[in-house]
Amino acid sequence: MPAKIIDGKAVALEIREEVKLQVGELRQRKISPCLAVILVGANPASKSYIRSKIRACAETGIKSIKIDVASDANEQDLLDEIDKLNRDTHVHGILVQLPLPHHMNEERVTQRIDPAKDVDGFHPENVGKLSVGIDCLAPCTPSGIPELITRSGISMSGKHAVIVGRSNIVGKPMMNILMQKGEKANCTVTCCHSGTDHLANHTRQADILIAAIGVPKFVTSGMVKDGATVIDVGINRVDDLEHSLGYRLVGDVDFDDVKEVAGAITPVPGGVGPMTVAMLMKNTVQAARMIHHL
Predict the structure, then answer these.
(1) Tally of CB atoms within 10 A around 245
(2) Which of 30, 139, 213, 264 sits between 20 and 30 A of 1, alpha carbons compared?
(3) Its pTM surpasses 0.70
(4) Contact 212, 252 (CB under 8 A)
(5) Distance CA 80, CA 82 (A)
(6) Which residues are catalytic?
(7) Separation between Cα atoms, residue 149 and residue 70, nearest integer Å
């Protein structure tokens, strides 16, 4: 029996509606949640991501500020912009769209953001809090995955979750999120990566398999246990001359192959992607509440 298709668009819309209500409650307290996004240069993909985030802000009632920094600006110019936003009491969330030009150090830039306004959850202070289970701003993509799973009617507690990928953006925070206590976690976690021997032996043990490695259609049916929940974080462009754009998007999972053995699976696009923006909105509201001690 083919897998249940997990609808990320529907779950993300549910979360955004909840955020809209929370924004309304904050405005009754004279607090207007505000997200500042910084775009360095004119990378087409980055511009598209920024547009989707600004549109989501408008739809949920969050105020947004867009700051453009020239691609040939020096790193100090960008740090100065961040410092201004850190001091601005009307700004609750700060996001610097990655990647940055090669002459800018992403680590220095992300660490310059006030941890209380770090809605991407990349600052070492938030990373540390996440690892020990202290309430904090967590990275949007991995924090959205438990929401996606549980809101689709799938239990997580006690399950064996296998993550393929150890990036600081998805793999590592995902591991920390899933091993915490709580209904939307409480998993036994295995994290696999490029140094893992006999990878399929690990992935076939997963009740929940999360693929985040950036390799198109890497995970096949032979790597998946019957009935497993498969979460595909990958977004890869592959050439397709039949498509109007000359390419199409595929995930790290061979969807057509794996859906025949999985119990549930996310599509690409329409799975994890919409959740990332929804969780950014949720983080912005959370930041506003924490800054105002609510």
Answers:
(1) 8
(2) 213
(3) yes
(4) yes
(5) 5
(6) 53, 97, 120
(7) 40
pLDDT number for residue 108 = 97
Helix (H, G, I), strand (E, B) or coil at 167: coil
Given a contact cutoff of 8 angstroms between Cβ atoms, the answer to whether 96 and 81 are in contact is no
Q: Which residues of the chain have pLDDT under 50?
A: none
| Domain spans, the chain | 30-114, 140-272
Instruction: State the pLDDT at residue 242.
Output: 74
| Paired residues of 38 in beta bridges | 67, 96
Look at residue 240 in the predicted model and tell me its pLDDT: 74
Neighbouring C-beta atoms of residue 23, cutoff 10 Å: 22
Q: CB neighbours (10 Å) of residue 61?
A: 18
Cα distances (Å, whole numbers) of residue 280 to 118, 120, 150: 10, 7, 19
Question: CA-CA distance, 29 to 254, in Å (whole number)?
Answer: 48
DSSP state letters, 214-258: --TT-B-GGGS-TT-EEEE---EEEE-TTSTTSEEEE-SB-HHHH
Please, are residues 59 and 23 in contact by the beta-carbon 8 Å criterion?
A: no
Report the top-level CATH class of 140-272: alpha beta
Please give the Cα distance from 164 to 175 (Å, whole number). 10
∠ CA 17-273-222, rounded to 5°: 130
Measured distance CA(174)–CA(264) in Å, rounded: 19
Q: Which residues sit opposite 191 in a β-bridge? A: 163
Phi first, then psi: give them for residue 208, nearest 5 degrees.
-125, 120
99 upstream amide cis, omega within 30 of 0: yes
Give, in order, the Cα–Cα distances in Å from 176 to each of 19, 45, 152, 185, 213. 24, 29, 22, 9, 18
Q: Does the fold of domain 140-272 match that of domain 30-114?
A: yes
CATH 1.20.58.2190 is the classification of domain 30-114 = no
